[in-house]
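User: Before I run my own analysis I want an independent prediction to cross-check against. Here's the chain; please return only the structure tokens and, at the end, one sentence I can use as a sanity check.
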Amino acid sequence: MTSPMVSSSNLLHRRAVIGELLRDRGDLLCVASLGAPNWDITAVGDHPNNFPLWGAMAASVMMGLGLAIAQPNRRVIVFAGDGEMLMSLGALATVGAQKPRNLSVVVLDNERYGETGMQKTHTAAGVDLTAVAKGCAIPTCLTVKTEAEIAGLRRAVYEGEGPVFATVKIDPEALPFVLPPSDGVILTTRFRQSVLGNEALYN
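Assistant: Structure tokens:
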């Protein structure tokens, strides 16, 4: 029997992976890069602790880093695509230098630029983002290719000492858009109030 998490090509389904990582999330804070990761976190359930980026290509990891530093008692997860991560490799060096214990970066690697026509990215030519993260002194680095490995990634996100980096190899499937609110003021206000409570109303 085929698992709902694994495609016919034996690659992981992106939204099944995200659904598992965000299941029973508690107060986990989530930043998602523009494009598919944005739609993915919304498809598994819009949440006030989500901050989906509609623009700002290559900014998701640095936003997650800043959030992890500002909220050291909260776990923070960043979902980014491989195209975005390739554009912001320097961010991994900063994460490795700062070493926030509460930050996880999960790269959904379909080896494609999904926003511009599904052209192959450099990861299709052998570029290893997990190896880059290791070279940037990030202590926990994983490459996830199977359903069984998702459980270990989930434990690292919720129980491990970060920073954690994971490349998750996913199927380059085309999925329907599930859009979060597109008004930046609404998203920012909602997120600030969820994170800071009443303090956000006066600052």
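Sanity check: The mean pLDDT is 91.
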